[in-house]
Amino acid sequence: MVEEKEDEVKIIKQIFLIIEENIPDDCRELVIRKLRDKLLRDIKELGVKETIRKWLAEDSEEDGEVTLVY
Predict the structure, then answer these.
(1) How confident is the model over 17-30, as pLDDT tens digits?
(2) How far apart are CA 55 and CA 58, in angstroms?
């Protein structure tokens, strides 16, 4: 249980890094803040796995299974 939570924290940090590295400089702070707030709200309501599933489903038409690889 503790190890799973630690892995989820690592995944969340990775997601934040990806977001930060891919946002244009001209709107960086505003976009990062909005995405971070949305991501944290979804994680609080749905949990990490369901949040990832939701965000992936928004980008694709497929409703597949999400596998987290550590």
Answers:
(1) 888 888 888 878 88
(2) 5
Listed in order, strand segments (DSSP E) in 1-58 are none
pTM of the model: 0.64
- Domain extent listing, the chain: 2-59
Q: 43 in the Ramachandran plot: left (φ > 0), alpha (ψ -120 to 50) or beta?
A: alpha
Dump pLDDT digits (tens) for 28-67. Answer: 888 888 888 998 899 999 998 898 888 877 765 555 555 5
Q: What is the three-class DSSP state of 66?
A: coil
Structure tokens at 66: 């999400």
